[in-house]
Amino acid sequence: MIAHLDSVSRLFGSFAALRQVSVDLARGKCYVLLGENGAGKSTLLRILAGLLRPSVGEVTVFEDSEPRQARHRIGYMSHAPMLYDELTGRENLQYYRDLYTRPERSGCLNPDDALRQVGLDPALTRTVGQYSQGMRQRTSLARVLISQPELLLLDEPFSNMDVESVDQMVRLLATFRSDSRTIVITTHQRELAAPIADFIITLKAGRLHSLDAGRPSL
Ligand SMILES: Nc1ncnc2c1ncn2[C@@H]1O[C@H](COP(=O)(O)OP(=O)(O)OP(=O)(O)O)[C@@H](O)[C@H]1O
User: What range(s) does the ABC transporter domain occupy (predicted)?
Assistant: First the structure.
């Protein structure tokens, strides 16, 4: 088991964004987290990432850790791109690596390799401000991959992308799902992530509505 949520609730003031959610995530699988706007998807993802704590309930990752203790093993890509428009893709990744990864930590990818993994040429001289949305999303993904996370959490990775870019992104993600890596993707468009969904978790108004096996084709 790579993550275990035990009756997790999260309140913002008196409003419950998550209500008693219990779920287990198995290693090496891709989970698609579905739900309408406001259903609690981002909240759940941020709790798994260790960015938010549950108000009630327990979260355990990698058998025996709290997410915060295991942050170096978790990659989180938020809605916001967190890229600097005036830098190239390579410069963005170098900047991120220098700021956030510790030189002594082995196993980090170098920025050029991370860019190649997502199908981008590290030698591109264009700045990120001139990239298409698909390229921006792939650059964001490359940034997250630098630390070689075992648990990859992606919040709406297909937002504002054209159909072809979504298809490329989905195929790319399928190559990252492996025995040593679990992926969780939030979306409100079920069909986009269906090709890689081993399991589909549906949230409704903060509650776990269903957990179904998917029919992945990639
Ligand atoms: N920091 C916060 N303070 C107050 N309310 C919040 C906060 N974060 C989330 N909420 C509320 O919790 C609910 C769930 O939000 P969340 O972002 O998890 O939903 P979501 O399913 O990801 O929706 P979306 O697709 O719109 O991002 C929403 O009603 C939202 O307004």
Answer: 3-218
Distance of CA 40 from the midpoint of ligand 1 (Å): 6
Helix (H, G, I), strand (E, B) or coil at 12: strand
Give, for ligand 1, the residue of 37, 160, 207 to mutate: max count of ligand atoms closer than 8 Å to Cβ.
37
Model pTM score? 0.94
User: Which of 24, 36, 133 is closest to 83 using CA atoms?
Assistant: 133
CA of residue 11 to ligand 1 center, whole Å = 10
Contact yes or no for 143/96 (Cβ under 8 A): yes
Ligand 1 atom at shortest distance from the alpha carbon of 188: 25
Q: 56: which residues sit within 8 A by CB, 6+ positions away?
A: 7, 8, 9, 20
Task: Please list the rounded mean pLDDT of every run of 10 residues in the chain (218 residues).
Answer: 97 97 96 95 98 97 95 91 94 90 73 94 96 93 93 93 88 87 93 94 97 93
Residue 104: per-residue pLDDT:
59
Q: What is the CATH number of domain 3-83+149-213?
A: 3.40.50.300
User: How many CA within 13 A on the CB side of residue 161?
Assistant: 22
Length of the chain: 218
User: Predicted ipTM?
Assistant: 0.95
Contact call for residues 177 and 25 (beta carbons, < 8 A)? no
All structural domains of the chain with their residue ranges: 3-83+149-213
Distance CA 153, CA 165 (A): 19
Number of continuous H segments (helices) and E segments (strands) in the chain: 6, 9
